[in-house]
Q: What sequence folds into this?
């Protein structure tokens, strides 16, 4: 019997389709990457007594709250897209995918606007305008930059999947796999927002 | 869909709680513990409902979660060095 035939008959591990298993393996690896970056941030903060807290509630945390609501809402819209695709409602699925992409783009725009404002104040990955360790800027830009990269890649992937789904090249299983990636991006933000933003609010700042 | 909307509302409520804890200006250690606990609940809700891990085989969910947890626990060895460096340096300006 040919080897390819044997491979094709082998049951899927945990009863999970290979496509879904693949994205879960990626998510586990990527979770370890983000964990390592966040741990490095914590290490640098603990080891540097001259760590400065750069953020005030207005505008940074207020902007962060809006970004969080936008990203959480995009998780809901992609769930709606997958449910619509599973029910065979193609037009509705495409509309929800479009809404998810718009929310992702809004998140990226708000994030970039915040970056530009901080750069305008003198923040760089190697410079701290408040006079403390430059590692504050280094960790902020590296952690949020890595997450922003994931958001932008996610928006592009959702766009490609939506086009393929409309043309009949992809099915609801592909959308579900894409949804898992998007939810993971949202899940990472649930740690980035408190650890990078909320823990770095200046004491006594309004 | 109703279940997902409820989870979404729950996640928004947790974010609001995180912001309230921050505004309360708690000690950094207490704030960190609170924020990590709330982020953990958010992550669990996201994993179980939005990512449907609740509906997969338990062995699959445990394999994934344990892999990440073991990695995170192994990373904890670095804290001792961070505190050593903290003790060697001057205090904050």
A:
């Amino acid at each position: 019997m040919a080897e390819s035939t044997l491979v094709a008959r082998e049951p899927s591990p945990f009863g999970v389709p290979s496509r879904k298993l693949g994205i879960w393996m990626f998510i586990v690896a990527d979770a370890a990457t983000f964990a390592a970056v966040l741990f490095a941030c914590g290490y640098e903060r603990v080891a540097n007594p001259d760590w400065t807290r750069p953020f005030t509630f207005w505008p940074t945390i207020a902007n962060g709250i809006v970004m969080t609501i936008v990203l959480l809402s995009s998780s809901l819209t992609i769930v709606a897209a997958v449910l619509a695709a599973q029910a065979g409602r193609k037009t509705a699925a495409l509309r929800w995918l479009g809404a998810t992409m718009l929310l992702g783009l809004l998140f990226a725009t708000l994030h970039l606007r915040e970056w530009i404002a901080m750069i305008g104040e003198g923040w760089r990955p190697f410079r701290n305008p408040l006079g403390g360790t430059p590692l504050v800027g280094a960790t902020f830009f590296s952690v949020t930059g890595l997450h922003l990269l994931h958001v932008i890649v996610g928006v592009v992937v959702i766009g490609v999947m939506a086009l393929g789904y409309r043309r009949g090249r992809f099915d609801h299983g592909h959308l579900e796999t894409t949804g898992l990636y998007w939810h993971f991006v949202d899940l990472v933000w649930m740690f980035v927002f408190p650890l990078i933003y909320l823990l770095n609010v200046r004491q006594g700042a309004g | 869909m109703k279940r997902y909307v409820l989870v979404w509302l729950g996640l928004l409520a947790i974010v609001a709680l995180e912001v309230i804890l921050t505004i309360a200006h708690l000690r950094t250690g207490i704030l960190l513990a609170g924020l990590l606990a709330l982020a953990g609940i958010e992550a669990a809700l996201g994993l179980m409902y939005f990512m449907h891990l609740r509906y997969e085989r338990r062995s699959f969910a445990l394999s994934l979660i344990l892999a990440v947890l073991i990695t995170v626990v192994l990373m904890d060895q670095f804290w001792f060095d961070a505190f050593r460096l903290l003790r060697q340096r001057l205090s904050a300006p």
